[in-house]
Amino acid sequence: MSQSALIVIDVQNDFCPGGALAVADGDAIVAPINAMMQDFPVTVLTQDWHPADHASFADNHPGALAYDQIDMPYGPQTLWPDHCIWGSDGAKFHPALHIDPADLILRKGFRPHIDSYSAFFENDHETPTGLRGYLQDRDITDLTFVGLALDFCVAWSAIDAAKLGFRATVVEQACRAIDLNGSLAAARQAMQEAGVTLA
Ligand code: VGL
Ligand code: ZN
User: Fold this and answer.
1) Among 179, 196, 184, 192, CA closest to 7
2) Nearest to 119 by CA among 40, 10, 5
3) What is the largest CA-CA distance in the chain?
4) Residue 153: CB within 6 Å of ligand 1?
5) What is the Cα–Cα distance from 88 to 109, expressed in whole angstroms?
6) Which ligand is nearest to the CA of 175?
7) With contact defined as beta carbons under 8 Å apart, do 62 and 197 qualify?
8) pLDDT of residue 2
9) How far does residue 183's CA lie from ligand 1's centre (Å)?
10) What are phi and psi of 116, to 5 degrees?
């Protein structure tokens, strides 16, 4: 028997127009995502949730600029403008996003020294967030991903889901991308290679 869940990635103010790491047209996906929630028995929301001293912020690396790439102990890391600082308005969900239907709100990126794009593992690809166990305990096999940003947190989450043996689909119309140095094309290719269905 297959059981499905909608996984809504990081639909937060800082990723929407006017936010600290605004994704073009990011708020255009809120209404479609709200509508999709009605078609799924389970909805999970994720929230990018960083302390102010987070290592992914360019401001915490003297001399570095936002969008530079640096080497961290766990691999390459893009540096970002300060965003989704816990407790800030930017970290809150977009005000029009329906929160009530969510069974689970999962926060990620709260450890100062490691970023977490994926909803399943931090960027070392080893430290689990606990989402796999939650979904497995509920016998959920099929995951549909939507949200922000398509080429970072959505793609990394969907790829990890496929690697873990879930059936993973990304509905691109309900996503928007940052598209930094070809990241969107690379993410699409990586998703296809991992067996993610792009719908
Ligand atoms: C994200 C960059 C940094 C995302 C989060 O949600 O795609 N991107 N933190
Ligand atoms: Zn982040």
Assistant:
1) 196
2) 10
3) 54
4) yes
5) 15
6) 1
7) no
8) 86
9) 12
10) -145, 90
Q: How far is the CA of 193 from the centre of ligand 2 (A)?
A: 25
pLDDT, tens digit only, all 199 positions of the chain = 789 999 999 999 999 999 999 999 999 999 999 999 999 999 999 999 999 999 999 999 999 999 999 999 999 999 999 999 999 999 999 999 999 999 999 999 999 999 999 999 999 999 999 999 999 999 999 999 999 999 999 999 999 999 999 999 999 999 999 999 999 999 999 999 999 999 9
0.90 surpassed by pTM: yes
CB-based contact 125:65 (threshold 8 Å): no
Using DSSP's 3-state secondary structure scheme, residue 32 falls into: helix
Q: Is the CB of 48 under 6 A from ligand 1?
A: yes
Write out the two tokens for 192.
């296809």
- Pocket flag, ligand 1, residue 10 (CB < 6 Å): yes
User: Does the annotation count 84 as an active-site position?
Assistant: no
Residue 2 Cα to ligand 2 midpoint, Å, equals 32
Atom number of ligand 1 nearest to Cα 152: 7
Concerning whether 92 is annotated as a catalytic residue, the answer is no
* Residue 153 appears among annotated catalytic residues: yes
